């Protein structure tokens, strides 16, 4: 003897079955807030400076830049850098470009794990503007500094385990170099992975 099921029950069972077989919702990565970005950016700067310089007071230009005389990265320069990097997340490059659309002031209370001084453009001009002994004046003021360091803002990938940053150092009239540096987070610590030189003097 057959038992007839009401049509509504059949439809309900069919809907439940199809729902169970459908695609599962994917977990979305929470968007990091400004505080987290600032914290990670300072962690990248700290790791970069520690792994680049051995000691001394680090003199850093107070505004960001991506090359001498340039606030934002040109497409051709960034393309060159990306062509010479390997095994990196493309989102890190897009974020780097977006975050370096102009010069930005660095925070005066950054926690970098090293002794540092932020140098204004006016202070730099005062030492180098009309004084041909500018580097002598600089080293009189900062005798243990490795030169003048310029940093860009840091670009991150969406999972915050890769970072791209520019670091330039000038230590005398014809002594300096600039690098785009890719860092990776390993066991919670940022480590330099690759460098691409973009200028040298």
Record keyword descriptors for this entry:
201 residues; alpha/beta; seven-stranded mixed sheet; 6 helices; 7 strands; 34% helix; globular
Condensed summary:
This protein has 6 helices and 7 strands. With 201 residues, the chain is α/β, with parallel strands linked by helices. It has one domain.
Radius of gyration: 25 Å
Strand content: 15-25%
Total domain modules? 1
The total of helices stands at: 6
Main sheet record = 7 strands, mixed
Instruction: Give the topology string: H per helix, E per strand.
Output: HHEHHEHHEEEEE
What would the principal axes of the Cα set say about the shape?
globular
Instruction: Provide the low-confidence segments as ranges.
Output: 22-28
Report the span from N to C terminus.
95 Å
Q: Strand pairing plus helix content: what structural class? A: alpha/beta
User: What is the β-strand count?
Assistant: 7
**Helicity range:** 25-40%
**Overall pLDDT metric:** 86
Helices and strands in order:
Blueprint: H1 7-21, H2 34-52, E1 58-61, H3 75-83, H4 90-99, E2 116-119, H5 121-128, H6 134-141, E3 148-151, E4 155-156, E5 162-172, E6 175-186, E7 189-200
Structure description:
With 201 residues, this protein is of the alpha/beta class. The chain has one domain. Strands 1, 2, 3, 4, 5, 6 and 7 form a seven-stranded mixed beta sheet that branches. The termini are far apart. About 3% of the residues have low confidence.
């Amino acid at each position: 003897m057959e038992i007839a099921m009401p049509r509504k029950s059949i439809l309900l069972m069919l809907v439940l079955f199809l729902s169970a077989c459908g695609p599962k919702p994917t977990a979305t990565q929470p968007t990091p807030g400004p505080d987290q970005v600032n914290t990670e950016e300072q962690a990248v700067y700290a790791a970069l400076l520690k792994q680049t310089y051995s000691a001394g007071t680090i003199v850093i230009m107070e505004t960001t830049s991506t090359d001498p005389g340039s606030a934002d990265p040109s497409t051709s320069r960034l393309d060159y850098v990306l062509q010479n990097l390997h095994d990196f997340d493309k989102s890190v490059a897009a974020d780097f470009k977006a975050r370096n659309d102009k010069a930005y002031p660095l925070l005066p209370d950054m926690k970098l794990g090293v002794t540092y001084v932020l140098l204004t453009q006016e202070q730099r001009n005062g030492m180098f503007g009309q004084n041909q002994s500018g580097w002598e004046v600089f080293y009189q003021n900062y005798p243990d500094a490795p030169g003048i360091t310029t940093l860009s803002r840091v670009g991150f990938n969406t999972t915050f385990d890769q970072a791209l940053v520019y670091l330039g150092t000038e230590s005398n009239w014809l002594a300096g170099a600039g690098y785009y540096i890719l860092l990776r987070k390993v066991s919670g610590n940022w480590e330099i992975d690759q460098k691409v030189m973009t200028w040298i003097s």
